[in-house]
Amino acid sequence: MCGITGWVAFDHDLRTELPTVDAMTETMACRGPDGRGTHVDQHVALGHRRLAIIDLPGGGQPMSVPTPHGAVTIVYAGETYNFPELRAELASRGHSFTTRSDTEVVLRGYVEWGEAVAERLNGMYAFAVWDTREDKLVMIRDRAGIKPFYYYPTPDGVLFGSEPKAILANPIAEPTVTADGFRELFAFIKTPGRTVWEGMREIEPGTVVTVASTGIRTTRYWSLETREHTDDRDTSVARVRELLHDTMRRQLVSDVPSCTLLSGGLDSSAMTAIAAAQLAGQGETLRSFAVDFVGLTENFVADELRPDPDTPFVHDVAMKSGTLHQDIVLGSAEMTDPEVRRKVIRARDLPSGLGDLDASLYLLFKAIREHATMALSGESADELFGGYRQFFAPEARESTTFPWLAGHQQFFGQGRKGQDGGSPAPARQGLLTDQLSAALDLDHYIQDSYHDAVSGIQRLDGESELEWRMRKISHLHLTRFVRIWLDRKDRMSMASGLEVRVPFSDHRLVEYVYNAPWALKSFDGKEKSLLRAAAADVLPRSVVERRKAPYPSTQDPKYAAALREQCRDLLTTPGHSVFDLIDKAKLRQAVATEAPQIDQASRRDLERTLDLAVWMGMYAPTIKLP
Length: 626
Hints:
Helix content: 25-40%
Enzyme class: ligase
Pathway: Amino-acid biosynthesis; L-asparagine biosynthesis; L-asparagine from L-aspartate (L-Gln route): step 1/1
GO molecular function, one term: asparagine synthase (glutamine-hydrolyzing) activity
Radius of gyration: 24 Å
CATH topology of the largest domain: Glutamine Phosphoribosylpyrophosphate, subunit 1, domain 1
Number of helices: 24
Strand order of the largest sheet: 2-3-1-9-8-11
Number of strands: 19
CATH superfamily of the largest domain: Aminohydrolase, N-terminal nucleophile (Ntn) domain
Structural class: alpha/beta
Strand content: 15-25%
Low-confidence stretches: 413-422
Distance between the termini: 41 Å
Shape: globular
Family: Belongs to the asparagine synthetase family.
Number of domains: 3
CATH class of the largest domain: Alpha Beta
Mean pLDDT: 94
């Protein structure tokens, strides 16, 4: 895993811009603590920071290969899991290799197949190739959007980077946020291609972006397509099991210490059990890690989303699978440390408002990094197999908005369905000023985005109304919702130089399970029926029967008290730029209570306020509103 950045300028000599290129590259230092490199020529500058995972001595970048008509150079971030097969195929076609890295395989694959190399890759990747044979830049992102990739068109070329901060380090890119940027920030819908920053674009998953002197061209090499599923239940379960074992085998390949993230839920437990068995067959013991909070297990209070604490289930899995397990136990003082908030905001380049969900993940990864460099995560399984409550909730199935917004106002800002029974209630505005709320008009933005998102979904001939509704819900989760969480996991892990792989995002598994009918995905009346059946033989009974619970959140009253106190401190600086966005009177009222706990909606309001304050101070964005 690495960080990449670059600059193409067809009307400018970039050999005079090395200090700027170095500054862009250094913003990626956390993503690549093991090495750095740059390649600068007249019209191109490439920067790379390396986190060494495979072929530690031989995978340095930028990497070039000569051809009879000019050199081809790559900067690459990610992992290609089928690189051994591709390497063998390329060798049979006359290519010779000087390293054992997957980067060289991808580079020589581009020399052999051009942009079509993307169709042959299995993995998570974002890479850019400068092809001197045609004086063009080719940027390619993985199918699921696991690895982030951004670009910023300029009058004579483009800037690009793994994260916005790399692009914003170039004076050409101005840190400006318009109403559309704030809409994307507050709506919680992750529109493909859009970013918070004006003029900046996200390379969409499964897409190739080519930059030449004639302009920028975008082509799609993969999308989530509707296909008929003809396998019966037993065959489907067997195929899911087969794909899981093959994916895990591929993704366990590493030249550095590895582990799994274990929550005690079905997804991470199945992943951990399979990985542990495969490593045991090689005489190795798997390490596993879990996050916990001081006093949570002993004093746990069930709520609407979380029926039980994770730790007992985590320990059941660790014992049955024989992992070397460690709980990372966090306290409220750590998670409310202003410096931790700053590091989270810096890692994400935006104020997510997720608070302890981000802070605890960052601290978890920081602790894991002391023991391992690569971790496997169960991310994407809920979206793929149908694990969230909104897959079953009538208000989500019947609503005309994104299913995770229907009936979950306290978490994502959208109300329950309206009085007409189908339309969603107005979006919750929280502590935003009335002027900003009116300018954003989030209700219409969300509705327009929803209709645009569902318009391209293909319906299977003869598909029932229920199956069609569930196909749309599944598609939205796999093309919108999951990318919010994939981006979060990437940013929080790479901030500590930890590579996190996500086996449930393997495109073969996604294509297969997406097209399985809802009746198969819920055949036992529970969530994630196919996954449960495929992994039941390796899991403890407690986990097989456990009800879905999301990523844990602290219940310590000290956490809520610290949020209120920090917001009170913010109010003592009435001239802070955050109050261009946040209403001081609303914030003052929100922190007036001394109750030991606050509801989820109020807590998120305080988190977002503090995040916005840090972000405004750190990035000093120019705000352009109507």
